[in-house]
User: Which sequence fits this backbone?
């Protein structure tokens, strides 16, 4: 079978294990996600799916991700939402950590997603994507390690409240009317991170 078909079968298997209500596979290559003009068709498909599903919350990649394809998919998702009338948009857009973690975010910007329960299902889902793991990248172990590290390093002064967690960032300001431009949102978030570092350094250097 072609690699595309292998990936499709893995996603279908994940949908069964994860008890997804629905899965759509659009089969766009990374080259489309990373290019503005070809991405137009993807935006249209995503807009139609969001319109039909009418979700209250959309979980997506985040604009701070290190992987260009992930950032392209995020931009397509954002553009799809913005193409809809305001009353048809989701109430919340959450960016999830995927390639680059979000542990650097100031704590008041972190959305803590408690993943302590059903760790067995999470492990099973991670292990399904063998075509990506078998090539020498142990994403299954890395994802589990990140979630456990997040739970421990979230708070330096108290015992762990959860065993596993993922971080998200609320991107809802981007889909409001009028929304904040994405570049302004990124700059403001990075400024808050910078100020957080400076404040800590100032405190210990008094």
Assistant:
């Amino acid at each position: 079978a072609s690699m595309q078909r292998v990936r499709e079968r893995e996603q279908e298997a994940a949908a069964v294990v994860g008890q997804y209500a629905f899965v759509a596979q659009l089969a766009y290559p990374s080259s489309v996600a990373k290019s503005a003009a070809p991405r137009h068709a993807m935006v249209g498909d995503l807009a139609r799916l969001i319109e039909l599903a009418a979700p209250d919350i959309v979980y997506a990649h985040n604009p701070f991700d290190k992987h260009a394809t992930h950032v392209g998919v995020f931009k397509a998702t954002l553009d799809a939402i913005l193409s809809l009338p305001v009353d048809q948009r989701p109430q919340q857009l959450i960016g999830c950590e995927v390639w680059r973690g979000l542990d650097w975010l100031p704590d008041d910007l972190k959305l803590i997603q408690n993943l302590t329960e059903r760790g067995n299902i999470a492990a099973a889902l991670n292990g399904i994507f063998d075509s990506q793991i078998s090539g020498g990248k142990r994403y299954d172990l890395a994802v589990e390690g990140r979630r456990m590290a997040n739970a421990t390093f979230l708070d330096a002064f108290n015992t762990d409240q959860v065993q596993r967690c993922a971080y998200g960032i609320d991107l809802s300001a981007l889909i409001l009317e009028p929304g904040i431009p994405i570049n302004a949102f990124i700059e403001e978030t990075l400024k808050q991170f910078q100020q957080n570092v400076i404040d800590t350094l100032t405190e210990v250097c008094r």
Summary: Strands lie at 57-61, 92-96, 110-114, 165-170. The radius of gyration is 18 Å. The CA atoms of residues 32 and 41 lie 9 Å apart. Residues 182-204 form the longest helix (23 residues).
